[in-house]
TrEMBL record:
Gene responsible for this protein: thyX
UniProt name for this protein: Flavin-dependent thymidylate synthase
Cofactor(s) the protein requires to work: FAD
Native species: Sulfitobacter undariae
Function of the molecule: Catalyzes the reductive methylation of 2'-deoxyuridine-5'-monophosphate (dUMP) to 2'-deoxythymidine-5'-monophosphate (dTMP) while utilizing 5,10-methylenetetrahydrofolate (mTHF) as the methyl donor, and NADPH and FADH(2) as the reductant.
Cofactor notes: Binds 4 FAD per tetramer. Each FAD binding site is formed by three monomers.
């Protein structure tokens, strides 16, 4: 269950309240505030708090007072200019705080993004829930034969069933032993006579879910999204990045539009690649051999231009 009834009641109570503010408000983000967007089988992302909007980026860029907005068109043009020229600090003026529930093996990839503030659920203090990521059948793939860091075709029939059964039974067996090692609970939920929670957890598999609060500024969030909403990223983290992209598009539409165009949709080209394009435009027949690029570079270059 991605959201427990208690968490949903808390979300409903938070959304039922509102308070007047003099701060900049993004209407698009207000619609998302506190609401959980489900990801994978038990996970979610939800916005806990945010600061700033498109105008805050422009205001910082102009280092002016007041709203800093001349017109929407002007702001959009300025934001696109900032994105195009890697003028990144104005984007750092916006912040987002997310509550994320995710499998531990996804959290290991996510935590590599060091330019954020994190506070994680303590499995030393609390007992983890019996919630494990079990991939949907269409995401149970064979190892790729062309990319060591990727997936091949979907496993079918008995082979897929065997893998899913192993994942489920190993997870449950590990959790049964986790509970057995922790022992009984006292009246206030404290462990009695059992192994310390900080030790009992070490046998749990990395598909168990954890939760954290993750706060990051928009510049570093875009960096995270560029890497993790990319087809090269593992599916299980990509779906989180995709869910965050939808929220960011509503929060700062102009900044997200520029990010989508220049970063997600754009590509950076080497000097050799640019030279190759110039020679192509001049009518020269270009191949990997006369381009000066390696086979890998040429394959990626063709992937960009064809
Ligand atoms: C498809 C994919 C495959 C990957 N495969 C592997 C792998 O096999 N093994 C592995 O270990 N990792 C792997 N990674 C993780 C990757 O190497 C980065 O650690 C991760 O993407 C975080 O990127 P970052 O350091 O740019 O982000 P952040 O930590 O958010 O940093 C953002 C930027 O801040 C600057 N910065 C932050 N900290 C420092 C610092 N201490 N010193 C200097 N500059 C700093 C850098 O410019 C950096 O780009 C992979 C990532 C992806 C997307």
């Amino acid at each position: 269950m991605p959201i427990s009834p208690e968490q949903q009641a808390e979300i409903d109570a938070q959304r039922a309240q509102s308070a007047p503010t003099l701060r900049a408000v993004s209407e698009g983000m207000e619609a998302h505030l506190y609401t959980a967007h489900e990801v994978l089988d038990h996970g979610f992302i939800r916005v806990i708090d945010y600061m700033g909007d498109d105008a805050a980026i422009c205001q910082a860029a102009r280092v002016s007072y007041g709203k800093g907005t001349k017109s929407v068109q002007n702001d959009e043009g300025l934001i696109r200019y900032l994105m195009r020229h890697w003028h990144s600090t104005p984007f750092e003026m916006c912040e987002i705080k997310l509550h994320v529930k995710l499998p531990v093996f996804v959290a290991r990839q996510w935590i590599r993004h060091r330019t954020a503030n994190v506070n994680e659920y303590s499995a030393r203090y609390s007992i983890l829930d019996r919630e494990f990521y079990i991939p949907a059948p269409e995401h149970v793939n064979a190892q790729s034969v062309v990319n060591n860091q990727g997936r091949g075709g979907v496993l079918e029939g008995a082979e897929a069933a065997r893998v899913l059964e192993i994942l489920k039974s190993d997870s449950n067996r590990a959790y049964d032993n986790y509970e057995a090692m922790i022992g009984t609970e006292g009246p206030d939920g404290e462990a009695q006579d059992g192994l310390a929670r900080e030790l009992a957890r070490m046998n749990l598999p990395t598909n168990i879910y954890t939760q954290w609060y993750w706060k990051v500024d928009l510049h570093n969030l875009f960096h995270f999204l560029r890497l993790r909403a990319d087809p090269h990223a593992q599916y299980e983290i990509r779906v989180y990045a995709d869910a965050i992209c939808k929220v960011v598009a509503d929060w700062v539409p102009a900044a997200y539009g520029a990010f989508e165009d220049y970063r997600l949709g754009g590509a950076s080209l080497s000097g050799r690649a640019l030279d190759c394009i110039r020679r192509m435009l001049a009518g020269e027949e270009m191949t990997q051999e006369n381009s000066g690029m390696s086979k890998g570079e040429w394959r990626e270059f063709e992937g960009v231009i064809r």
